[in-house]
Design a protein that fits this description.
This protein is an alpha+beta fold and 465 residues long. Among the domains are: 254 residues, Deoxyribonuclease I, Chain A, CATH 3.60.10; 30 residues, no CATH class. Helices cover 35% and strands 18% of the residues. The chain contains twelve helices and 19 strands. It has a seven-stranded mixed β-sheet with strand order 3-4-5-2-1-15-14, with no helix packed on it. It has a six-stranded mixed β-sheet with strand order 6-7-8-9-13-10, with helices on one face. Strand 6 and strand 7 form a beta hairpin. Helix 7 packs antiparallel against helix 8. This is Endonuclease/exonuclease/phosphatase domain-containing protein. It comes from Ancylostoma ceylanicum. One of its GO terms (molecular function) is catalytic activity. Pfam families: Exo_endo_phos.
């Protein structure tokens, strides 16, 4: 369980205001507190004797803005970095450690409605840009958005919950940002009494608004959002706290679920698209090379298609398998035994026919029979153990990776001392590389080999017109 908070401190420019913040923070349960309106002219990165780490950014030339974070002792070891991206946006990155997955927390302080529309739009464009550039699996955005978001009004507003106070124009813009980034508004997901929902109080206590918000990109990890009334430093804002349950297991499951079938390339279409390349007279050969590589990548992308997996078992066999399950569920053991025998025979026959058809198709097309037989299998065998150089055997994957890395590093490392090369100065002209030699070299390269840093495979080069 992790608790992430947001708090508009109004100012953290003095030692007294920082001390007051720390006194109140030690009274509550938190892991990270996103801080807005620091109004500091100098940044601060401090580690306290009790282990907390405080990062405070600077305000603009008008003395407005400034964001920061306070990280509790138990999470300090997970800190990767804190960056103030603008005077209104900060980013805290927490690295993976044990069962705790990697996490990015954005702290934002939006302009009020009194600012020009251009400045408000620039803020949201910056926030969206930084959000999309970050590829962490779990991302949380907290801060003072000076925006009011009420309950969901239409079925299309799935990113907004069914609870809230009221809407305003700034809230419409924040809702648009949430919908564009496909995130979830946390405040409106949970039913709370009005006294535990508002985060800002007008002078005199006449008006109350909910303008501080918590946004997350994974709804299932958010368990609660609410204010903490007892946290008070003299600010007209109240601390808003969200509870999360971040799981490495959930991260792995979601990534596996999003896997897409391996794409295949239509080489005839690729050859046609690659033929549109036009040579230009460029003084810098590196620029010409980069342009060619980009053209080949674009051509390969346009020629991609999803690889269709042909059914290995016939419909009749699948029906037998279904009947076997139904017979077992009904308790008819004699019929189950008979259907199990027929299923084994049918599966064996289907695989035999399918394998023969695949190999015949490969032979007619002139493809490698060995590679085709390998592709027909729907699984790969893994190395279960490896012998170390000292003769001992290990089944640890990490140790096996180290053994393989050391072996190939030593294999391809040069142990021969080469004398320095001296160019001839008698007017000897090095012959140019002939195009026929280049084509011969390309045709000699084996297929299905790993590409280099440019990600261009031998098949791409061999299918050039």
């Amino acid at each position: 369980m992790m608790t992430i908070c947001t708090f508009n401190a109004r100012t953290l420019a003095s030692e007294a205001s920082i001390e007051d913040l720390m006194v109140q923070a030690r009274k509550i349960r938190y892991d990270v507190i996103g801080l807005t309106e620091t109004r500091r002219h100098r940044p601060l990165n401090a580690t306290f004797d009790t282990g907390e780490e405080l990062f405070l950014g600077t305000c603009d030339s008008r003395g407005v803005g400034g964001v920061g974070v306070l990280v509790n002792t138990n999470l300090a070891m997970n800190i990767d970095s804190f960056e103030q991206l603008t005077t209104r946006i900060g980013r805290l990155r927490l690295r993976r450690c044990g069962s705790m997955p990697a996490l990015t927390v954005f702290v934002a302080y939006a302009p009020t409605s009194s600012y020009d529309e251009d400045e408000i739009e620039a803020f949201y464009m910056d926030l969206e840009k930084f959000y999309r550039e970050d590829h962490t699996f779990y991302k949380v955005i907290v801060g003072d958005f000076n925006a009011k978001i009420g309950p969901r009004r239409t079925p299309e507003e799935l990113h907004i919950g069914t609870h809230g106070l009221q809407w305003n124009e700034q809230g419409e813009r924040l809702s648009e940002f949430i919908m564009t980034t496909r995130t979830i508004h946390g405040n409106s997901q949970f039913q709370k009494p009005t006294s535990l929902r508002w985060t800002w109080e007008s002078p005199g206590g006449e008006y109350h608004n909910e303008i501080d918000h918590i946004i997350v990109n994974r709804r299932y990890c958010l368990t609660d959002v609410g204010v903490v009334p007892k946290f008070y430093t003299g600010s007209d804002h109240r601390l808003l706290r969200a509870r999360f349950f971040f799981s490495r297991k959930g991260e792995k499951a979601a990534k596996y679920k999003k896997r897409s079938p391996k794409p295949t390339i239509n080489w005839d279409l690729f050859t046609t698209l690659a033929g549109f390349w036009e040579d230009t007279v460029v003084d810098n050969i590196d620029e010409e090379y980069e342009r060619l590589i980009q053209h080949l990548r674009d051509s390969a992308k346009k020629a991609e298609g999803l690889r269709t997996t042909k059914r290995r078992l016939s419909h009749e066999t699948l029906e037998l398998i279904r009947q076997r399950g139904a017979a077992r569920a009904a308790g008819n053991y004699q019929l189950t035994s008979e259907l199990a025998r027929r299923c084994r025979e049918a599966i064996k026959e289907d695989l035999k026919e399918r394998r023969a058809a695949v190999l015949a198709e490969a032979a007619e097309a002139g493809r490698s029979i060995r590679n085709t037989r390998r592709d027909f299998a729907n699984r790969k065998t893994e190395v279960t153990a490896l012998r170390r150089p000292d003769g001992t055997t290990s089944s640890s994957r990490r140790v096996m990776e180290k053994v393989i890395y050391d072996f190939y590093s030593d294999l391809f490392d040069s142990h021969v001392h080469l004398p320095p090369c001296h160019l001839r100065e008698d007017g000897y002209v090095i012959p140019s590389v002939l195009p026929s030699g280049v084509r011969h070299a390309i045709k000699s390269v084996k297929n299905r080999t790993a590409p280099g840093p440019d990600r261009i495979r031998p098949e791409h080069l061999k299918n050039l017109p």
